Known about the structure:
24% of the residues lie in helices and 32% in strands. By secondary structure, it is an alpha+beta fold.
Amino acid sequence: MSIDLRDPLYRINLNYLKKEAYSGSGDGLRFMLKKGNAAEGEGDVLELWVWPEPLSFEKTAEDKRSKKEFSFDQEGLDAAVEMLMGMLSD
């Protein structure tokens, strides 16, 4: 992937994720970061979804998509971006 989401120029903002999902693709992998609800009403979580190209999230079979949850704060966002960048550089 030519864009590094850790670079300040491309940094994802939590305020954006409060209202909209952020998605993209690179190296044969599609991804989406979005706000989700924690189990049992414990507040919000940050969901990182990944799936193989070429299909959209909705058109990809559920067993091909995977989700990882992080805390919905800057620390959780940083961890999600690091995990994602590791997947895209493999």
